[in-house]
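Explain my protein.
***
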Amino acid sequence: MSSPNVVWQRRSSRHRPAAIQHGIESVWRDSTAELLRIAKSATLLTRSGHEVIVNGLEEVGDGVWSGSVAKAAAGAKHIQLGIVVQFREEEVQGATLT
């Protein structure tokens, strides 16, 4: 399945993405690309603020990534589980490491 046209919220340029490891959330100090390379999933927000968890992360190129939707908030009715979506690094709110 391929991605519908999803518009993601951009993370504020003043904020760094969160890294979640062993259930503990902390601010990630390195690049978002480095975080995504070691993450098992990424957290995105739809334009309307609904959380979407994406796993199977792959770098497409030039700050663009793709992955499969593993979980979507109930309000994100247009996003089906298992579809492949694309997103930019500045749209990543956080990532789960373990």
Notes: The chain is about 5% helix and 40% strand. The chain has a mean pLDDT of 94. The first helix runs from residue 32 to 38.
